[in-house]
Amino acid sequence: MTRLIEDDIRTKEVLEWRGINLLHFSGSSCSQKTRIFLNLKGIEWVSHPVNLATGENYSDWFLGINPRGLVPVLVDDGDVHIESNDIIQYLEKKFPLPELIPAEYKELAPKLLREEDDLHIDIRNISFRFLFGKLARKKEDSALKKFEEDLGTIEGKKDNHKVNELKFYKDFNKEGITNKSVIQSALKFKKVYDGFESNLTKQPYFLGKELSLLDIAWFIYTHRLILSGYPFKKTHPKVVNWYQNLLKREEFKKEVNESLILRNVRRLTRFQDAIKGTTLRKIVNF
Hints:
CATH class of the largest domain: Mainly Alpha
Helix content: 40-55%
Structural class: alpha+beta
CATH topology of the largest domain: Glutathione S-transferase Yfyf (Class Pi), Chain A, domain 2
Number of domains: 2
Number of strands: 6
Largest sheet: 4 strands, mixed
Strand order of the largest sheet: 2-1-3-4
């Protein structure tokens, strides 16, 4: 679990915050996942929006709470927790009912969620290329330099986690998202979804008869991949049925509602890709 110690926290005002507070962004996949979890648990929380589109996550104020520059961040009675999967596992222990980790999977939960977390750059590759279109702006060199030079610590130590973040944005600024990167990412997802498709022949959810954290985590990735044009109906029809059943639930649906601007940008991006023959389906050719 990733919890900041007091010396890590440079924005000291959050130490006085009471109750469950969530710093988040509406369109962040990890924020959406965490909000769905909070909805299902019925946990009361205080919202603190952080605008990633304007680079607010690279401000001194926010880096003083999370030196990784990522949302969501949970502040629980002044204790600061980062990393979405760590946050939801922490909250699962604090609010055990309704149970979202089946008893037989409690020891395995961190490993199962790590597989999703390990593909975060891959979902970003596909989202930036096929979902966000021109909204996927390059990061200003000055913002990246500030982020790179920030001396914030995690658990009292220099944090190496942001190396991957910096590499992604430096590569994106230089060459965008290449077809090679798209294919590599899509193949990783196909391998995981092949396993889920097999599971869903025997049960309604990924871990059995009851909804779990794993379903919540992968719902968001599945939603983004569907919007990006991933050929689920051809490759994983049972996953499509699982996804559609979850999307009917208000706890899920309200967290993935698109703004009109994003919806129009996505439609324009898909139209332009179709004209050029560069859709996700064409590139991966499953």
